[in-house]
Amino acid sequence: MKKQHVNRNYNAQDAELYQWCQEALRLAYRDQAAFQQYGYSMERAQKFKNMCDAFQQLPDDDEMVGDQMIATEKKNTAADALRTAIRSVMTRVAMKYHDKTGRYRKFGTSKLGDMSDPQLLFCGRRVVRVARAQIDFLADVGINEQLLQRVSEACSTFETALNIQQDRVHDRDIAVERRMEQGNKVYSELVVLCDIGKDIWASKDRVKYEQYRLYESNNDQKKQRKTSKSE
Questions:
Q1: Fewer CB within 10 Å, N or C, the chain?
Q2: Is residue 1 part of a domain?
Q3: CA 184, CA 7: separation in Å to the nearest integer?
């Protein structure tokens, strides 16, 4: 069964969510006697704190994007090296066959600079295969097994770099989903804690009640300040 897409349940940056949790926990420890009356123990508060700390330690998107960019740079470098190796062969092939002939076209390198990554890898292997099939006819222009081996090695290096780059893309997707899932759990527990805090102080102390309010946008805060002023 296909996994359901995870949606973020909170309208804030992860760093803001973590800060909200730290402040709410500080208030809960201050008001722990009242929290005990709701069955919310300090052991549960400690578990919540541990959950928040684990959430903070998860790699953020900047880290994952950085890893992805590094892998992409290495992949691009390997792609350039493969194109260079292919051109080294094709320069020699062109000395033997005109670039309009069928023998030249068999190598399939006419759009080398515009090829996608899979096309480039496929092309490199085709060049080696086609050149080996007629290596006796191309020996006089310098095409030999050593030259073709360089192309083969360039293909292998590029394929490895391409796979690593794709792994980093998938790693980022997984990390984003994992962080969102953990963030939703943290936020859910935060809401429980703040709802208790608001209920404790709703009819006793307006200032302390407001301390447990969650404002998920600057607009919410502006509305609250406007309401407070009018009151």
A1: N
A2: no
A3: 9
